[in-house]
Amino acid sequence: MNYSLKQINDKTFLIDARIRIEGVNYRKRERFSGSRRQANFRGRDIVEALQAEAEREQSMSSLKTFSECISFYVKEKSPASSDITYIKRLDKELGSVLIEDLPKALIRFVAYLNNSVNRLGKKYSNASKNRYQQWTRAIINYCHDWEQIEEKPKLKFKKFEEQARDVSLTPEDIERLFRAIDEYRPYLRPITMYSIQVPSRVSELTETTIFNCDLKENLIRFKNGTTKNGDGGFKPIPPNMVEYFNSIPKGCPWVFYREDNGDYKKLKNFNRAWRLVCDKAGLPNLHFHDLRGYSVTELVKKGMSEREVMDICFWKNNMLHVYYKRNGIGSSNKAFELLKNETDSDQKKEKLG
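The chain above was modelled as a monomer; its predicted structure follows.
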């Protein structure tokens, strides 16, 4: 028995509970009013609470380095392949750092990025520097929320100003892109064709399985927790891709896949293949994520409301004005019509005069 009872008077007892786990003593004393039987029940409850507290403290102190935090995060969260690139780099550069030393180490790492170039020989963009800092904070916050670390280090960092990418694609660009895809990496055609029509994140598409598809209603369902904002939703299957969705081979769970010696494999990080086809198409600065902006622009041009675009993009806020304000399609069209009406009116007045 890990507790003792000392009777103070007829209905009052002093409960003294003690346990020892891995060389650490845990103790709690409590004054209890009731019968001896009730006091015994309370004593057992206190011991159980002490054991739970001890186990929690032991687990909280289990993660010492940032690498251990990264391993825990990756195991529990299974981040998308497009995100794992940042996480692997952080593990390489900061993995050996003790958690309490992480703030200073992160500042040094960002300073290094400011004065170096990436593998393409270009300076690191502000967006990339922000992503490294944001992923560091996200991993630490997650480990702290799950009580894997006792004290969360204060990660104060400067957010670098980002400029939204302004990439426009002509019908000729799209034609050249698909021509290069068909010649060099044919398996990229379906996911590219879908992306230029339906705004999507690459992580959403690479994780999509045939079991998420309603081929009768021509919809793809995204469950809660599988999108960036955490909420689920639906995206349409474009009419010109219905045949493709119905022709996905049996035994292949993935909607977008590549075939390798008779096996159907999930598309993971296909950045190298994408760079190849873009270079061959004469579009070296085109990112796959740019197709998301292009498809949003096309939907707005076709008259889709902002609310509808938000639903398809899984936006909680109207990001159209933040990231796609440069297009100004709706406003420009209305301005054109107003100016046209004024011109027509002036011309009529001149004729009448």
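Residues 66-145 form one domain.
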